[in-house]
Amino acid sequence: MNLKRLDAHIGKLSALLGFLAAFGFFQFAYPYHLVRREQLTLFVWDGDYIRQTYRGAGFLSRFVGDFLEQFFHLPVAGPLVVALLLTLIGVAVYRICRHALGRWPSLGIAAAFFLWSFFRETGNLYITRYTVVVLGYLCLLLLALQFKRTWQRAAAAVVLLAAGAWALGSPFHKDYGKPWNVPKFDYERMIGLDAEVARERWDKVIELSKVDLYMEEASYCYNLAHAMKGDLGETLLNHSQNHQNSLLFPVSINRTVFTNSLAGEAWFQLGNMTVAEQSAITSLQSSPKHTGARFLVRLARVNLITGEDGAAQKYLTLLSRTLFYGKWARSRMPGNQDEQVRAELAQARARLPREDYIHHSESARRVLLSLLEVDPGNLPAREYLLCDDLLRYDLDTFMDDYRQQPLRGRLYHEAILIWLSRNGILNPEQVARYGVDVSQVDRMLRFGRNPDRYKNTYWYYFSQALED
∠ at Cα 209 (288, 275), nearest 5°? Predict the structure, then answer.
């Protein structure tokens, strides 16, 4: 009796430790991995949709997988779901092995299956249905082992596993259900930036940007967050920049799926709905399941702003039948919008350009000028225009743009001092004319004596270009 109790306690303790380890990892060390997966999927509570979507081989695993992935939208629920699935796999393997092996060998095999499933879950494109498939097959095999006679077990295993092959499908896919993965923490930080940009949580983006990943996509998110906070002219060079390439992305076949997805975020905030819509459609087509709640939300918002209520209603109707986007979608349905939503849409419509630049999205300057022509008070667009000039080393164009609407910002003043110096008019009158503090002139002189102490200045950035 004591041995049986010990056996039960060891098994329960092992399961509990595995559950806590998996939950802790996905909740604290790898939190955005599951959020990204939820953004690329959609589960609609509609009978016709379910019947059309979940049919044919593997219908059950696809249904259960998509149903569970909608909970990845929540910070605690997602890790709980994954931890529970992984723990159940370990428990099922342990119980199967105990029919033929002792306690410790069974624990070892169960731990190996748990770790294998755990590492598969860390894959960038992994889909939850493949964990569901593995658990489903293990449960069917465990069910077959409940029969007492050997021939009954064999017959039940054949019948149940054959039925499972139809209902569950394969536990592998050449792209999405790879046999082995390992965590990629730099990529986790990058998709964290991406997720917070999509949520428009700019303070969180800035916090995550404290670790510089030296990637265009990370710099892009950093720049967008500071432009929305109104201090890009102060902070631009506190972070790595790949010249003007890390400011705005075009939607292009030469870009990765991830970068094309990000491309629409800045254009949407600046007011160019055409490129924002193009980015969302491209992302839908490229996502593993050719759907995604994030992109449907973006398409709904774009069409509401551009006045395409019919198209917006199509996306909102679909989203209204989801668990976590339903309330948001219903509040924005044409004819059901409150005063706050109408004011929000009116403000966004005021920034729409008069010309369509869908074929010229790579000409950032032209698009930014068209946005500012419609709304000169579009501060993020103004910041992007000035910073684009600076990162291209085009000081003459920068001065022309700056005179249109001067903005406060350390980098802008540093660039003005360079321009004044290069044109031989660096004097107190000109410095005062552009609102530059006199102390900045002394600081520029100190930079000349020891440039390496001022690496986050525009002086250093510009001097590096001269050396090249």
Answer: 50
Q: What are phi and psi of 170, to 5 degrees?
A: -85, 145
Q: Which two tokens stand for residue 4?
A: 């049986």
Nearest to 283 by CA among 294, 274, 272: 294
The amino acid that residue 360 corresponds to is H
pLDDT tens profile 356-372: 655 445 578 999 999 99
Which residue in 297, 405, 273 sits closest to 348, CA to CA?
273
**All residues at 6 or more sequence positions from 52 whose CB lies less than 8 Å from its CB, including other chains:** none
pTM above 0.90, yes or no: yes
Q: Tell me the C-alpha distance between 110 and 459, whole Å.
A: 60
Residues with Cβ within 8 Å of residue 19, at least 6 apart in sequence: 83, 84, 86, 87
What is the tally of helices (H) and strands (E) in the chain? 25, 0
Do the beta carbons of residue 190 and residue 218 sit within 8 Å?
A: yes
Q: Give the DSSP letter of residue 307.
A: T
422: tokens are: 């290069």
Do residues 189 and 208 make contact, with C-beta atoms less than 8 angstroms apart? Answer: yes
In the numeric block, which tokens belong to residue 467? 């050396």
At 1 the pLDDT is: 47
Place of tokens 């536990």: 171
Q: Which amino acid is at 246?
A: S
Contact between residue 133 and residue 61 where contact means Cβ atoms under 8 Å apart: yes
CA 324/CA 24 separation, integer angstroms: 24
